[in-house]
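Protein folding task:
====================
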Amino acid sequence: MIKFKERGNVSFSNFRLKEHQCDYEPIIGLIMVKNQERWILQTLESIVNICDQIIMVDTGSSDNTVAIVESNYNSVLIKHVDWKEDYAAMRINV
């Protein structure tokens, strides 16, 4: 669930509840990573409840990032892409 502050009001409103079935465009979380074993679980935990699908693009990790995700979040789709020194191009090609 995403909450946002209403204009001129201190209360929060529910933007969307994942568990409700309705016609909507799915929210897909896309994370590009390399050697993020220290932070990947915290990152995924922060978005798992609001995304319908999560895609993690690993750009050549040499640590346990991929193994950690595979053992804790088996629903995350993991793609492996060779890094190119052009961040904009990397986002488009994923």
